[in-house]
Specification:
Largest sheet: none
Number of helices: 20
Shape: globular
Number of strands: 0
Helix content: over 70%
Strand content: under 5%
Order of helices and strands: HHHHHHHHHHHHHHHHHHHH
Distance between the termini: 44 Å
Length: about 425
C-alpha cells in the first residue's frame, strides 16, 4: 500500500511540474521495476524491445505517411468534388458532402487531424463562399475530422490493440458501425440546420466529369476496406498497399506530387514517429511489468469490492474518459489508461473490442473539447479563427456525438455486428 501511495505521489509531482509524458512514463517504469519488478533498470530496455517486436507497429508510420502523401496531393479535392456533385439536390448539400468526404478520407488516412485538414482546406472556403454559417462550417469540418480515428483504419485503434493485446482487425471491424452512425447523424443535422437553403438541381455532366477525374481516388477506400474486411489484408499489409497505391496515384497518375517532394513528406512523417514511438516503447515496457505482477487483476478485485453494477462502472469510466479527453491527447490517454481499464471492463462483461470502441469514441469527442482538443488547436491555425469561436462552433456537434456514444453503449451490437457478422 505504501509503495502504491509513493507511486501516486510521484505521478502527481511530475504532472504538477508539467513533465512530458515520456519522462513521466520512464519515471513510473523505473519505480515499478525497483519496487515490484526485477530491480534492474536495464530490464526496461529489454521489455521495450519485446513490446515493440510486433508486426502491426509497422502499420502506424505507413498509415501516417499515406495520409501525408494524399494531403500533399489532390486525392481529397477529387473525392470532395464527386460527393459535392451527388449531394447538390439536398438542402445544405455542400455540408453533407463535407461530412461524407471526411468519412471516406478517414477510411484512408487513419488520423483525425489529417482528415480535418485534407477536407477542411477544400471545404472551408467553398462553404463560406456559398454563405454557410461560419460556426456551423467550422463545427462540421472539425467534427467530421474526428471520424478519422473511429472509421477504420485508425491509428488509435492500432495503439489500443498493441497495449491491450486485442485483435486490430476486429477493432477495425467494430469501428465501422459507429462510424456510419456518426456520419448519418452529422449529415442529418447538416440537412436540418441548412433546411432553408435552396438546393441545386443534380448535374449529370458535372458528376460524370468529377467521377472521371476522381475515379482513382474513389477506388482507394474500396481497395483498402475491401482487403481488410475480406481478410485478404492484415492491418500492416493494408497500410503498405494504401501507401503504394497513394504514391502511384499522386506521383504517376495525378502527377500532383513530385518525387523530389516525397523526401519532405517522409521527413514530416519521421518527426511525428520520432515523438510517438519512444512513448509507445516505454508504455509497452511498463505494461509488461504490470501484467507480470498482476496489477490489472488487483485493480479488478479492488473495483468489484466497491462497484457491483456494470452500468455504474460504465458511467464512471465514461465520465473519466471524457475528462481525460479534455486534458490529454488520444494516444497518451490510450497508452496510460487502456492497459489498466480494459481488464477491469472485461470483469464487468465488456470484452476488449467493445470497450476499446467505447474508449476511442470518448476520446474522439476529446478532439473537440478544450483545453487540449487537437482539432480546435489545429483549426485555429488553419482557419484563422479565435479559440472561443471554435469552441462555441463545436458545442452542437459534441452533443450529437455524445448521443451517438450513448446509443453505442446501449446497443453494442452496432459495433459488434461487423465483428460477428450477426446481431
Amino acid at each position: 500500500m505504501t509503495s502504491a501511495l509513493l507511486l501516486l505521489a510521484l505521478v502527481i509531482l511530475l504532472l504538477v511540474l508539467r513533465q512530458p509524458l515520456l519522462v513521466t512514463l520512464l519515471a513510473v517504469a523505473a519505480f515499478v521495476q525497483f519496487t515490484w519488478g526485477r530491480g534492474q533498470l536495464d530490464y526496461i530496455i529489454e521489455d521495450m524491445w519485446v513490446g515493440l517486436d510486433k508486426e502491426v507497429i509497422l502499420s502506424i508510420p505507413l498509415f501516417i505517411l499515406c495520409g501525408n502523401v494524399m494531403t500533399k496531393g489532390t486525392t481529397a479535392k477529387r473525392l470532395v468534388r464527386i460527393l459535392a456533385s451527388l449531394t447538390r439536390p439536398l438542402p445544405g448539400g455542400m455540408a453533407v458532402a463535407c461530412i461524407l468526404s471526411c468519412a471516406i478520407f478517414a477510411a484512408i488516412s487513419g488520423s483525425s487531424i489529417v482528415t480535418m485538414l485534407a477536407v477542411g482546406t477544400v471545404m472551408y472556403p467553398a462553404m463560406r463562399a456559398a454563405n454557410y454559417d461560419l460556426k456551423f462550417t467550422l463545427g462540421a469540418i472539425m467534427s467530421g475530422g474526428t471520424l478519422g480515428i473511429i472509421i477504420p483504419p485508425s491509428i488509435p485503434m492500432i495503439i489500443y490493440g498493441l497495449v491491450t493485446e486485442t485483435s486490430v482487425t476486429e477493432l477495425f471491424a467494430a469501428g465501422f458501425g459507429p462510424g456510419l452512425l456518426i456520419t448519418f447523424v452529422l449529415s442529418a443535422y447538416a440537412i436540418w440546420f441548412n433546411r432553408h437553403m435552396k438546393p441545386e438541381p443534380f448535374d449529370g455532366a458535372e458528376f460524370r466529369t468529377a467521377f472521371k477525374e476522381g475515379i482513382w481516388a474513389a477506388m482507394m477506400p474500396v481497395i483498402l476496406l475491401g482487403g481488410i474486411y475480406s481478410g485478404y489484408f492484415t492491418a500492416t499489409e493494408a497500410a503498405a498497399v494504401a501507401l503504394a497505391y497513394a504514391m502511384l496515384v499522386e506521383i504517376f497518375i495525378h502527377r500532383e506530387l513530385k518525387l523530389k517532394d516525397f523526401y519532405g513528406v517522409v521527413l514530416e512523417t519521421s518527426k511525428l514517429g520520432g515523438s510517438l514511438f519512444p512513448v509507445l516503447a516505454v508504455a509497452l515496457s511498463l505494461n509488461i511489468v504490470l501484467t507480470e505482477h498482476r496489477v490489472p487483476a488487483a485493480m479488478v478485485q479492488f473495483m468489484q469490492g466497491y462497484i457491483d453494477s456494470p452500468l455504474m462502472f460504465m458511467l464512471l469510466v465514461n465520465a473519466l474518459l471524457l475528462v481525460v479527453g479534455c486534458l490529454m491527447t488520444t494516444g497518451e490517454a490510450i497508452l496510460v489508461l487502456a492497459p489498466l481499464l480494459a481488464p477491469v471492463a472485461e470483469a464487468y462483461g465488456y470484452n476488449k473490442v467493445i470497450f476499446g470502441l467505447i474508449m476511442i469514441l470518448n476520446l474522439e469527442i476529446g478532439y473537440l473539447t478544450p483545453p487540449v482538443g487537437l482539432n480546435l488547436l489545429v483549426a485555429m491555425s488553419a482557419f484563422k479563427q479565435s479559440f472561443g469561436t471554435l469552441v462555441r462552433a463545436a458545442i452542437p456537434f459534441i452533443v450529437l456525438m455524445l448521443i451517438c456514444l450513448a446509443i453505442v453503449i446501449w446497443q453494442p451490437w452496432i459495433g459488434m455486428y461487423f465483428v460477428n457478422g450477426k446481431f
